Amino acid sequence: MTRILFATLLLAAFSACIDKPRPPKGDIPLDKGRAFEHVIPIEEARSLRQGFLIGRRELQSKLPGNYLDSAFNLPEGETFNRHAIAAILNAKGAEGLRIYLGKDQKGQVRMVLLPVDANGKDILTTLVSREKAANIPGIAPARAASMEQAMESGQRCPPLCKSAL
To answer: Which residue of 29, 31, 33, 89 is surrounded by the most CB atoms within 10 Å?
Structure first.
């Protein structure tokens, strides 16, 4: 009787594991239906990018001197690694991320990323605590300590571009 009970429990445990779809190792779970709402054809993405580049050139031609580059040095894009994105999406209550445009001391426009909740409200929290973080050159320990954080320091494009658009 004990063997039958043990076998039944073992079978139930294995079937529970088999029935649950698991994402492939390294993949972030996603709802394909919700993701599909934001999919655009690559031709539309190329058109959007070209529209931006053309608009930026037109604006530069209307401004005196090199004002646009010196006062608002706009990148074509910025690249963030998966760990920065994962830290944002792993924030408690995060349903997405918001990208703000900022401007650094050199006049370069930079992208600043924050988690947002289901209501679209910014989540202000510690994204990565110092105990769990690697030593990041250029970031003082006090900046990486427990506090409200956002993500920045993406790789600007140009110069670092390998775009398919």
So the answer is: 89
Residue where a domain stops, chosen among 48, 71, 94? 71
pLDDT score, position 74: 84
Same domain for 139 and 117: yes
With contact defined as beta carbons under 8 Å apart, do 139 and 100 qualify?
no
Instruction: List pLDDT tens digits, range 96-148.
Output: 999 999 988 888 888 999 999 999 999 999 888 876 555 555 555 544 455 89
136 and 65 share one domain = no
Comparing CA positions, the residue from 103, 97, 75 lying closest to residue 161 is 75
Residue 124's pLDDT is 94
Alpha-carbon span 165 to 160, nearest angstrom: 14
Cβ contacts of 89 within 8 Å, gap of 6 or more: 28, 97, 115
